[in-house]
Structures are given as C-alpha cells and as structure tokens.
Known about the structure:
Elements: H1 12-60, E1 63-70, E2 76-77, H2 79-83, E3 93-96, E4 101-105, H3 111-114, E5 115-124, E6 127-132, E7 137-145, E8 148-156, E9 159-165
Amino acid sequence: MSKTRKKKKKPVADNQKSTKKLHKKRIITVVTVAVLIAAVITVVFISKSCYDSSSNAQLVSSTWVPTSAKNSTGDEVELSEVYNNNYSNYQGSLTFSKDGTFSLWLTPGTPDDGTHSGTYEVVDNGTIKAVFDEGTQTVFKINRDNNQVNSIVMNYDEYSVCFTKQQ
C-alpha cells in the first residue's frame, strides 16, 4: 500500500488575501502611472505657458522694422527690390499687442495707407500663427539668440523679409 499524500487545501481566506494583494498592487501601479502622466503633462503645459508668455512679452515690447530680405532662391536682395520703390522713403513696421492682435505696415506711403492687421498666436518655439482681418493665414518665423527673440521672418510675395527690433 502506498501512501498518498493529500495536498493540503489552502484555506479560502488565504486565496482571497492573495487576490486582494494582487488587486491592490494593480491599483497602486495604475494610480502611480496616472500620477506620473499627469505630472509630465503639467510640466509640459507650464513650460509652454511660461515660454509663450515670455515670447509674447518680447514681441510686444518692441516695434519690429524690416532690415533685410531674400528672394525665392535665397539670395539677399535690397529692400527696395521687395517694395519696388525708393526704400529710403519707406520704412515699414510690424507690431504686436498684448491682446493678441498685430499690425503690419508693408506698402509705400504713410502707415494709414497700407497697414494690415489681424490676430496672432505664438504656437511653438519658433512660430507665430497670424490671421489677417480679411482671413488670410500666414506664419511668421521667430529667430532667437540665447532664448531672446532677435528677429521675425515673414513671407511677402516671393520674398522673405526679416524684421528686427527698432533701435
């Protein structure tokens, strides 16, 4: 006769305890992951908000004037070529307001003759999304030096015009 060992049955309470522990570990893991994701999203949002407000402050603190231009092949050209007139009689300007509006003067004459306006939003590290009052949308490129905005480039016809802070 062989002796067979009877397996001891674990009490039901032990099974329930281990199931509860496993369930508790899963909940803790899920909560930890959710908290980490929320923290990352918060940091990204705060960083973007700080960056956007810094960019806006730099934009609205100055009047920007055209200082150089390139044609469609990337060659540097005189601003008088862009505006097809005697540039010394014309300066132009680009201004941004705290309320999210901008004003662009790009035609010969006085600012009252050729000012275009619209709304703007700094959308990322180097881009301003601009919408003119008549609905035309464009993008201005922000150039930086040591995190300071040093110029803004916009397309005008087949030219890229660079604006720098007025001195």
